[in-house]
Amino acid sequence: MRPPDLPAFEDPARPLVVTSAVAFVEGGPLTIVRQAVAAAHDRHENHLFLVADVTEWEPSPNVGFVEVPWARRSYARRLWAEYISFRRWSARWRPTVWLSLHDTTPPVHARVQAVYCQNPLPAWRPTLTDLRLHPKEVLRSLVYGQVYRAFARRNDIVFAQLEWFARFVGRLMRVPASRLVVAEPDASEGPGEGGTSAIVPPRRGLECVYVALPRVFKHAEEALALCDATDVGLTLTFAGTENAYARHVRSLSGARDVRFVGALSHADALATTADADVVLFPSRLETYGLPIREAIDLGATLLLPVRPWTVEIAAAYEGAHFYRDVDEGRAMLAALAAGRAPEAPRPAAPPSDLRRVEGFAAIYDLLAAEAASSS
Fold first, then answer.
1. Residue range(s) defining the domain that contains residue 299
2. Of 25, 15, 26, 74, the residue nearest 48 (C-alpha)
3. What is the C-alpha to C-alpha distance for residues 226 and 234, in angstroms, rounded to an integer?
4. Are the C-beta atoms of 17 and 102 separated by less than 8 Å?
5. Which of 108, 145, 270, 364 could form a disulfide with 122 if both were Cys (CB 3.0 to 4.6 A apart)?
6. Are residues 135 and 278 in the same domain?
7. What span, in angstroms and rounded, lies between the C-alpha atoms of 148 and 157?
8. In a domain, 198, yes or no
9. 323 backbone dihedrals φ, ψ, rounded to 5°
């Protein structure tokens, strides 16, 4: 396949930064791509984004897009894109920086190469129930560790959204701590205009929301168990019909006050989060948990299990309450419904000694500095 032509940048002599994101079309990963694109518009380099659908994006004098829709049609095509096509394309484009947003390290020609790790599957320990409800996801988790490792040492920088995951991928990829950087996503700008809440009036008691896609490790069953009371309503942001796991969760909802509202736009998800009384996030596996960060930025009340990502993000936030098992969480939710502050010890945030940046403007600054030092 012939390499695509570069967009007509206003100043072709500027350094070229390629950011590959061909696998992302929904959820938190797509939000991350939007943040990267927004940061690129304000920079002095030329930025080329490899995406699944160019109609989603607006080019500018220094930001362009190349559509690679075929890379999402199968996992084999995705790996071909990563390891064959991108290498050939980079040989023609000769970028200064190549940043991969989806965990893989293509063997490209670039002065500086980096990977942004945000898929937690290698850290997952699936159960037999997970295998029954979502066998493809379980199979993917078994091979994804090898995908992480392939060509990993080519990376000058390995980004991860939280310290616990940075250290995990450092061990998995066998890269030294000096190359690891914790890169938290940009702060949310709030619901903004046009966002519509999916919380349905009239309210009845306490309204909870869990913003998540219907993936088996999102563990929506725990949200149902927490809201097992007549005065607690729950909104889930999937329809309950998308796949076997979604249908399983719907079958468990029973007589509970549960609303399956389907997938929401990002603006609507933020508006729904802002309108809820309590935000839940019982996922068993996350690299970050962007809805937690967005809920904090909105000043929402959170009820969270004690897990590495929840503690690292929210331990310092006074509006977050942590439970160690479902019974404790249910009791804490009952206290919130009665207008009382839950009584439970707050976990301490872990110590941090890795390099840290926040947002994609800082990520691109670091990559530019790395390129300057290696020239």
1. 206-337
2. 15
3. 10
4. no
5. 145
6. no
7. 14
8. no
9. -120, 155
Say yes or no: 159 and 213 in one domain: no
Distance CA 357, CA 216 (A): 31
Q: How many domains in the chain?
A: 2
Name the residue with tokens 């690679």.
68
Which tokens belong to 293? 């960060």
Helix axes 290-297, 27-40, angle to 10 degrees: 60
Report the SS3 class of residue 260. Answer: strand
Q: Output DSSP code: residue 82.
A: I
Could you give the CA distance from residue 113 to residue 109 in angstroms, rounded to a whole number? Answer: 9
**The two structure tokens encoding residue 48:** 């080329």
- 236 and 273 within one domain: yes
- Residues 174 and 282 occupy one common structural domain: no
Residues 9-26: pLDDT tens digits? Answer: 989 999 999 999 998 877
Residue stretches of the chain with pLDDT short of 70: 1, 187-204, 230, 255, 375
Same-domain check for residues 46 and 176: yes
CATH number at residue 304: 3.40.50.2000
For residue 39, give the nearest of 314, 361, 303 by alpha carbon. 361
C-alpha–C-alpha distance, residues 174 and 102, integer Å = 18
CA distance 21 to 285: 21
Per-residue model confidence as pLDDT tens digits over 118-149: 888 888 888 888 888 878 888 877 787 888 88
Does the N-terminal peptide bond of residue 29 adopt cis geometry, omega within 30 degrees of 0?
no
Q: Which residue has the tokens 């965990």?
A: 103
Give the pLDDT confidence score for residue 184 in this predicted structure.
86
Q: Does a structural domain hold residue 57?
A: yes
- For the question of whether the overall pTM of this predicted structure is more than 0.70, the answer is yes
Residue 62 near residue 10 (C-beta atoms within 8 A): yes
Q: What tokens appear for 359 in the block?
A: 């947002």
Query: Which sign does the torsion angle of CA 68, 72, 77, 80 carry?
Result: positive
Q: Is residue 23 part of a domain?
A: yes
Distance CA 46, CA 83 (A): 23
Structure tokens at 250: 């719907």
SS3 42: coil
346 in any annotated domain: no
Alpha helices in 254-374 (DSSP H): 266-275, 290-297, 308-314, 326-337, 360-374
